[in-house]
Design goal:
mainly alpha; two-stranded parallel ribbon; 7 helices; 4 strands; about 50% helix
Length: about 190
């Protein structure tokens, strides 16, 4: 996995440089459209070997959004108007490139959970914690419209905890057991062009 580690550091640095003008435009638009509150949102997530780290994202919700729980559904009233576009386009994840550059994350891997979910992993499922969390992964591709799926449920939190999260664990465990450079390339390709 040394190739993966080198690729992550190098490519994240290149992307941060190349995307910096785009990030500046997003920053300006964010301040115009959402003048109150911060631009960046940092949240504690569980990383490799269950170590906690702070993920960088562009803020898309009202500042006190953590009061609403860990699940965000499509049409959630906490999502700000410009935030909806940022979320739908995945632009809100641009600053996770910093997390990749400093080694907290990888381009491909399980999405990093908030504390509490990793504690639920038992037995062989805990191998997922040996991976660096990713910007994308096979579970991210399957659940790319997760907010919409959750919005259709009577109890989104329960559906997430009993259906989606266990399925993601299964998918991420399979990713761990069958990792290859070519699989990562395929996942990146499908994320961008699929």
């Amino acid at each position: 996995m040394i190739i993966k580690y080198i690729f992550d550091r190098l490519f994240s640095l290149i992307l941060l440089v190349v995307l910096s003008p785009v990030m500046l435009v997003i920053f300006i638009l964010h301040k115009i459209k959402m003048p109150k509150g911060s631009f960046l949102y940092r949240q504690v997530r569980v990383g490799k070997d269950a170590k906690l780290f702070r993920i960088f994202k562009i803020r898309t919700l009202v500042d006190d959004s953590e009061l609403g729980g860990s699940v965000t559904v499509a049409g959630d009233e906490r999502i700000l108007p410009f935030g909806k576009w940022l979320r739908d386009s995945k632009v809100d994840t641009f600053f996770e490139l910093i997390n990749i550059l400093i080694g907290d994350m990888s381009f491909v891997g399980p999405r990093p959970d908030v504390p509490g979910y990793a504690d639920k992993l038992e037995g062989d499922d805990r191998v997922i914690l040996k991976l660096r969390p990713g910007l994308t992964g096979p579970a991210s591709i399957k659940y790319r419209h997760e907010g919409k799926i959750l919005a259709e449920q009577d109890d989104p939190q329960r559906y997430n905890d009993e259906v989606i999260w266990p399925d993601k664990v299964k998918i991420n465990k399979d990713y761990y057991e069958n990792w290859s450079v070519w699989r990562d390339i395929s996942i990146l390709w499908e994320t961008i062009f699929g």
